[in-house]
């Protein structure tokens, strides 16, 4: 399979996390062509320097645009924190949908004012997060945790393993002890372990996954930008990875229940460019 030169909504993440976002976009806009890139050669992004993540994000965006993307969804909180403002500055004509931890909705939903935010270290380091806290979280207590190892576990498909359970327990139990009544999933990998999160947090804790809101935002922006790329019938998204195609194919099957042949992409590190490897 290869990318047809067509019109797409381009979607990217460091790995399989953004599949939790593309799932919602496809549910809402089944007739819109979606092209998804997983930068699995570099996953996890969350431990990297913001500058490095920015440079990967720029290269991926340029590749998506070269394939006909008309709108870009940065389906990754970490890449959004590191690169969204630079992307918008560099490409002012391109509409972007970015992600940020759902602190604002959480402050509206919490009843006792104690909110837990789960995200990667790089997301917490970015200016975006401190601005969010300053703007919306003056009157709530925010507890944070980076869940070390969870992104890697989700990449390996370990959604219910004892190790995954332990990572989540270590993060969530202390938050519960401090009275958290709302949890924000500030990393797109985390919705895939939602059943475990709910089990550990219990029925009284609200869990916020921003993916459906991102899908609505994408639909809104397509309309606002007068981009009409919807076909007559449902179209299956096209998937590509800079990592192992066979593993990614499996992950798409397991996480989205979609059978597909992903495209192999390769990095040219010196030129900071992506190329498509044809079969
Ligand atoms: N899925 C990503 C996010 O939303 C990044 C995970 C990672 O690569 O560290 O933050």
Short recap of the structure:
By secondary structure, the protein is of the alpha/beta class. It has helices at residues 19-28, 50-66, 77-90, 103-109, 121-125, 127-136, 150-155, 162-177, 194-201, 211-224, 245-256; strands spanning 8-13, 34-38, 69-74, 96-97, 114-118, 141-145, 182-185, 206-208, 238-241, 263-268, 273-277. The protein folds into 2 domains: 9-99 and 212-276, Rossmann fold; 103-209, 3-Layer(aba) Sandwich (Rossmann fold).
List keywords for this structure.
279 residues, 11 helices, 7-stranded mixed beta sheet, single chain, 2 domains, 11 strands, 4-stranded parallel beta sheet, binds D-glutamic acid
Description of the structure:
This protein has about 280 residues and is an alpha/beta fold. The protein has 2 domains: about 10-100 and about 210-275, Rossmann fold, CATH 3.40.50; about 105-210, Rossmann fold (3-Layer(aba) Sandwich), CATH 3.40.50. It is about 45% helix and about 20% strand. The model has no long low-confidence stretch (mean pLDDT about 95). Bound molecules: D-glutamic acid (DGL).
């Amino acid at each position: 399979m290869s990318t047809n030169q067509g019109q797409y909504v381009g979607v990217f993440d460091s790995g399989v996390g953004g599949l939790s976002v593309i799932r919602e976009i496809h549910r809402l806009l089944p007739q819109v062509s979606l092209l998804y890139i997983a930068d699995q050669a570099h996953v996890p992004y969350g431990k990297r320097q913001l500058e490095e993540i920015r440079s990967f994000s720029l290269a991926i965006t340029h590749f998506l645009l070269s394939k006909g993307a008309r709108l870009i969804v940065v389906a990754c909180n970490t890449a959004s924190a590191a690169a969204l403002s630079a992307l918008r500055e560099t490409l002012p004509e391109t509409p972007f949908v970015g992600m940020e931890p759902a602190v604002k909705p959480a402050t509206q939903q919490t009843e006792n004012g104690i909110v837990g935010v789960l995200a990667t270290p790089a997301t917490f380091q970015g200016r975006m997060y401190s601005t969010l806290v300053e703007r919306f979280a003056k009157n709530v207590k925010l507890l944070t945790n980076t869940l070390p190892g969870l992104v890697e576990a989700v990449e390996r498909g370990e959604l219910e393993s004892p190790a995954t359970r332990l990572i989540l327990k270590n993060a969530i139990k202390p938050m519960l002890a401090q009275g958290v009544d709302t949890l924000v999933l500030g990393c797109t990998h985390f919705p895939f372990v939602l059943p475990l999160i709910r089990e550990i947090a219990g029925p009284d804790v609200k869990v916020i996954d921003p993916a459906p809101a991102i899908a609505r935002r994408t639909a809104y922006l397509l309309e606002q930008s007068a981009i009409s790329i919807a076909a007559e019938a449902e179209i299956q998204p096209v998937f590509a990875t800079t990592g192992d195609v066979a593993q990614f194919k499996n992950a798409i099957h397991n996480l989205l229940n979609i059978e597909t042949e992903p495209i192999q992409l390769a990095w040219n590190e010196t030129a900071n460019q992506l190329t498509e490897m044809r079969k």
